[in-house]
From TrEMBL:
Species this protein is from: Streptomyces niveus (Streptomyces spheroides)
UniProt record similarity statement: Belongs to the HIBADH-related family.
Superkingdom of this protein's organism: Bacteria
Name of the featured protein: 6-phosphogluconate dehydrogenase
Alphabetized UniProt keyword annotations: Oxidoreductase, Signal
Length: 292
């Protein structure tokens, strides 16, 4: 596939605009469409062609990228023009679930389109930079054929495998990680804030601690994959004692103890299941099955 191949971008929200801009910057003939046409104006000023309709936009390029609110919006937009997708490569960078991705892949195949699902792990400003991470899943040959074009969107463009659901699965895994870290930071900021320490003062220590924990991840991953959880840094019993301190400090200072209590309840169950002398990674046994 020619590196300056024409490309269509459907959906010009914050992310869609950034995607289209990245293609325009690299000299690709870029056709755009958005439900609210006015959002295309800055792109048209930079050389994009605004299509009259979704069908016109799909017809304009062999590579069609869609990035809208959710998969329902994808289908509202594309179902009426499904016939026009025949012979096209559809790359869906809309966030969703793995089942939604697989269902959309089946739908695309029924209409003769090759399909890649994707997940963007960066904000719009990061698109097109070396730091951007964009994950793809679906047939490797399709990814490979369009990698030169897709590669313009992000530095670490990664194909995860043929299963279309893999990018959405990785996306939610990373989002969960992000919320876990952020919730813990907010708990710490609340506790310290109640004692008169502002969040900005806490920030450098918090960032350093996140980095320290990040360094543990490969070792924990190895334990999880091997199914054995030696206590390298501390036993789960020791972690549980410290969780009690956080719960008590939170209650004493009059801030919410909801989040640390949830974490503590899981650790208590894990200890009750016999993992107290093992490492923290043994908690994976609880995460692997539905509670209650
Ligand atoms: N923005 C970000 O940082 C995150 C990074 C991680 C991945 N997300 C995902 O990207 C998808 C789009 O997000 P967005 O930030 O571009 O979102 P908005 O700026 O709110 O734009 C939404 C676009 O979707 C169009 N749209 C909504 N509903 C429909 C519909 N029924 N039919 C057709 N288009 C629809 C909307 O059109 P309009 O309101 O401008 O007319 C926008 O183009 C999303 O999955 C994030 O999770 C971004």
């Amino acid at each position: 596939m020619n590196a300056a191949a024409p490309v269509t971008v459907l959906g010009l929200g914050l992310m869609g605009q950034a995607l289209a801009e990245a293609f325009l910057r690299e000299g690709h003939a870029t056709t755009v469409w958005n439900r609210t046409a006015a959002k295309a104006e800055p792109l048209v000023a930079k050389g994009a062609r605004l299509a009259d309709s979704v069908a016109d936009a799909v017809a304009a390029s062999p590579l069609v990228i869609v990035c809208v609110l959710d998969y329902d919006a994808v289908h509202q937009l594309l179902d009426p023009v499904a016939g026009a997708l025949d012979g096209r490569v559809l790359v869906n960078l809309t966030s969703g679930t793995s089942e939604g991705a697989r269902e959309t892949a089946r739908w695309a195949a029924e209409h003769g389109a090759a399909y890649l699902d994707g997940a963007i792990l960066t904000d719009p400003d990061g698109v097109g930079t070396a730091d951007a991470v964009i994950l793809y899943s679906g047939p490797h040959a399709v990814f490979e054929a369009h990698e030169p074009t897709l590669g313009l969107l992000g530095g670490a463009t990664t194909h995860l495998g043929d299963d279309h659901g893999l990018s959405s699965l990785h996306d939610v895994a990373v989002l969960g990680l992000m919320w876990g870290v952020l919730n813990s930071f907010l708990q710490g900021a609340a506790v310290l804030g109640a004692a008169g320490v502002d969040a900005s003062t806490f920030a450098p220590l918090a960032a350093k601690s996140v980095k320290m924990v990040a360094d543990w991840v490969p070792g924990y991953a190895e334990q999880i994959d091997n199914g054995v959880y030696p206590a390298v840094d501390a036993t789960l019993n020791t972690h549980l004692a410290s969780m009690n301190h956080l719960v008590h400090e939170s209650e004493f200072l009059g801030v919410s103890a909801e989040f640390p209590k949830l974490v503590r309840a899981m650790a208590e169950r894990s200890v009750a299941n016999g993992h107290g002398a093992e490492g923290y990674a043994s908690m994976i046994e609880l995460f692997r099955k539905p509670s209650g």
